[in-house]
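Hello,

I think I submitted the NAP job twice by accident. Can you confirm which output corresponds to this input? Input:
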Amino acid sequence: MDFYLPTKLFSNIDSFSIALEKLGEKFLIITGKSSAHNGSLDELTKILNKYQKKYEIFNETIENPPKELLELILKRHGKDWDVIIGLGGGSPMDTAKAIAILCKNNISVEELYELEKYNTASKIVCIPTTAGTGSEVTQYSVLTINGIKKGFKHEKIFPTISLLEPKYSLTLPKDLTISTGLDALSHAVESALSLKSNNFSELFAFKAIEIIKDTLPKLINNLENYELRKRMLLASTYAGISISVTGTTIAHSLGYSLTTDKGIRHGLATAVFLPFEIENAKTKNAEKIVSILGNMLDFLKKLNVEITFSVSEQEINKWSEIVANSSHVKVTPGNYDLQKIKEAYHWLIDKSGIYGR
Ligand code: NAP
Ligand code: FE
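Support: Only one job matched these inputs. Its output is below.
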């Protein structure tokens, strides 16, 4: 299939609430702590109260949701939910998607990766407060299982409806604005480079790159600018639509271990590999990306991106094995074998200038 997006998108809260009301009677809200401070949780519970829906709130979602978090949620709130709402960044949205499957199927968290074992889910609603992961328009959920970050993909976890409200992201501090904005950029760039890209994904990916190139550098010096927040949210949703077609490519796979083992935020951990991926792709789309964005390394430096961690050769070997076995390798132009994957890590550490010791 070239293109499929079943999610209804709303930017008007009244239209969103009418759609929400029709989804069911029992709602489980999965969120973190920040939604209580940016107005989003209040607005959502007001709607649910108005329609006299039954709801419970789980507000202890942590970043890079691990298996144990999902088990805790099910233990505390049970499985009898018509609708699971993911409110926050990618972590609560991805957690909501996984919970929606677990509510309707008698399977373990590990079995979420065995796609033939299920084909039903509670309805999913996503409300992003970062810009972002694009999870509000994708059929992916990224979890951390036994220390390894891995996504699963299933048609049933496309959200039924999502609300795009930029004002919720006005409270994002500078470091999170940069890392989440770079996640969106990574999605767009990786999608454009993917061997699976097509006319539809490219339309959204290149538009997202254009918007982010222009908007993110302005936004980091003007964090409370609503218009800039709105453009970044739109761009991250566009980028999400592009990866719903193609998936992500090698930069995401390379970055996952930096997040799990070194605590570097997801968007930063992936974006630092983009210059290497673009340089090695040697395709028309790679040229087009450079023509829009200019030199990727310069763009990262303009945002003052620098990461620091210590690493052993043994760790690089372990990380490279994980990448070599990931699905991302096959869809990335540039023939990534184990040697080239190790080269990418060495490039980051020895040559990129992003890595500060
Ligand atoms: P996140 O992990 O959801 O949240 C990061 C931090 O941002 C948390 O401390 C959170 O606080 C805070 N935060 C969220 N919204 C805020 C706001 N409006 N104001 C202030 N603070 C706010 O971050 P994310 O980058 O959006 O998501 C990353 C996750 O998504 C990773 O697990 C990644 O692998 C995954 N991902 C998924 C997809 C997909 O297609 N499904 C794509 C890319 C990435 P609280 O926790 O206290 O609320
Ligand atoms: Fe991502």
